[in-house]
UniProtKB/TrEMBL annotation:
Peptidase M48 domain sequence ranges: 204-409
Cellular localization per UniProt: Endoplasmic reticulum membrane
Gene3D superfamilies in the cross-refs: Metalloproteases ('zincins'), catalytic domain (3.30.2010.10)
Pfam families: Peptidase_M48 (PF01435), Peptidase_M48_N (PF16491)
GO biological process: CAAX-box protein processing
Segments passing through the bilayer: 6-25, 63-84, 96-125, 146-165, 171-191, 288-306, 326-347
Active-site residues, as the UniProt record annotates them: E275, D356
Main location: endoplasmic reticulum
Family: Belongs to the peptidase M48 family.
Ranges where the CAAX prenyl protease 1 N-terminal domain occurs: 31-201
Protein name: M48 family metalloprotease
Keyword annotations from UniProtKB, A to Z: Endoplasmic reticulum, Hydrolase, Membrane, Metal-binding, Metalloprotease, Protease, Transmembrane, Transmembrane helix, Zinc
Length: 411
């Protein structure tokens, strides 16, 4: 068997197997009673609901991942990539336009296959547990906007990559690296004011006790904010959250309206302090830097493999092309991507602990952060006891129980 084909099929199978195994082990790790730290917030019925929700999501994940893996195997082994290439070439466009059509068609096909699962998850699974507030109109509007943005932004970036690999020879990966890095930085800068408002309404937090508490904290932490905004998260879900966007002088905090309804001013101040901690500890800069370095490494590896005859032979291609080589390299990159994802999640979890510690120290109230985390976990029906393999593979944040125990230790 072609060695490239063997690596790609094995990595797809391994990714599927790890997902199924981690879900099985997490199911086995569940206990009938909540951990003692959560006994004051979970009654028997609420904890049973959280476990039922976790199990339902894991069953859904197993079905969706199995379907995706089987389709990928079928398309690869039945020559689907070559069939599409022949169809696109027959249209008679330039290599650049043909490449955009080829990758665009693959992306749309993948999206169409995933759409029924998105619909089921939103309108059946999330509905069953009382989370979904998304209307059919909002769901459709979100997907249409997402497709348009992907076509404009993703299509433009892809066109640049194909152009540089076609025109700049051995230095193409450097040109692509520079372009992608500038694109990523620019997107981070404009997203808070131009892109996110396309999907949600952001309104300045009204004057009052909460705004005063948050502004006083930010001033005391020497943290300059462009603004504190309330996002209409309840438009789609009952789940609460908060996030930090932008950099430089365009830093802003967004609080879900659901979070504000459920948490006290002291608890929300702790949540803000956690987000400020990410900035003060340099996590955001580190993530940007690591992302830029990783992007460069990916483009360099791409330049080594994407024109390999063996790679095209693995997919039964009649003619090699830059655009098909790019797609095949992404599939070949799967095992390395899994390793880097695991490493990235480990660093991210470490950063979350550091941000929790920063919040506890600068507010002087670690129990406020504990209370906020416990309320969020209860309202979101979070799984408190995921298996270590699941955490290792999928968790960018530590399990909430580990965070609560770390904060209690600080107290």
């Amino acid at each position: 068997m072609n060695v490239y084909l063997a690596v790609i099929l094995a990595s797809l199978a391994l990714s599927w197997l790890l997902g199924v195994l981690s879900n099985f082990l997490t199911t086995r790790a569940m206990t009938p009673e909540p951990p003692e730290e959560f006994a004051d917030i979970y009654d028997a019925g609420g904890y049973a609901d959280s476990q039922a929700y976790a199990k339902a999501n894991m069953r859904f994940s197993n079905v969706a991942d199995t379907a995706s893996t089987l389709v990928s195997f079928a398309v690869i082994l039945l020559g689907g990539f070559n069939w599409l290439d022949v169809a696109m070439r027959s249209l008679g466009y330039s290599p650049l336009i043909t490449g955009l059509l080829y990758i665009g068609t693959l992306s749309l096909a993948s999206y169409a296959l995933s759409l029924p699962f998105e619909i089921y998850h939103t309108f059946v699974l999330e509905n069953r547990f009382g989370f979904n507030k998304t209307t059919a109109g909002t769901f459709v509007a979100d997907r249409v906007k997402g497709l348009v943005l992907t076509a404009l932004l993703g299509g433009g970036l892809l066109a640049g990559v194909l152009f540089f690999f076609e025109r700049t020879g051995d230095s193409a990966w450097l040109w692509c690296w520079g372009m992608a890095s500038l694109f990523s930085l620019g997107l981070t800068y404009v997203a808070p004011t131009w892109i996110l408002p396309l999907f949600n309404k952001f309104t300045p937090l009204e004057d009052g006790e909460l705004r005063t508490a948050l502004e006083n904290y930010a001033a005391g932490a020497d943290f300059e904010l462009e603004g504190i905004f309330v996002m209409d998260g309840s438009k789609r879900s009952t789940k609460g959250n908060a996030f930090f966007t932008g950099f430089g002088r365009r830093k802003r905090i967004a609080l879900f309206d659901t979070l504000i309804r459920e948490q006290s001013p002291e608890e929300i101040r702790a949540v803000l302090a956690h987000e400020v901690g990410h900035s003060k500890r340099g996590h955001i800069r580190k993530r940007l830097l690591v992302g830029i370095v990783r992007t460069g490494a990916v483009f360099y590896l791409m330049s080594l493999f994407m024109d390999s005859p063996g790679l095209f032979a693995a997919f039964g291609m009649e003619q090699p092309s830059l655009y098909a080589g790019l797609v095949f390299f992404i599939l070949l990159y799967t095992p390395l991507s899994l390793v880097l994802s695991v490493a990235g999640n480990y660093v991210s979890r470490k950063h979350e602990f550091e941000a929790d510690e920063f919040a506890a120290r600068t507010t002087g109230a670690p129990q406020a952060m504990v209370s906020a985390l416990k309320k969020l976990s209860a309202s979101n029906l979070s799984n408190l006891t995921p298996h270590p393999l699941t955490v290792w593979l999928d968790y960018s944040h530590p399990p909430v129980l580990a965070r609560v125990r770390a904060l209690n230790a600080l107290s």
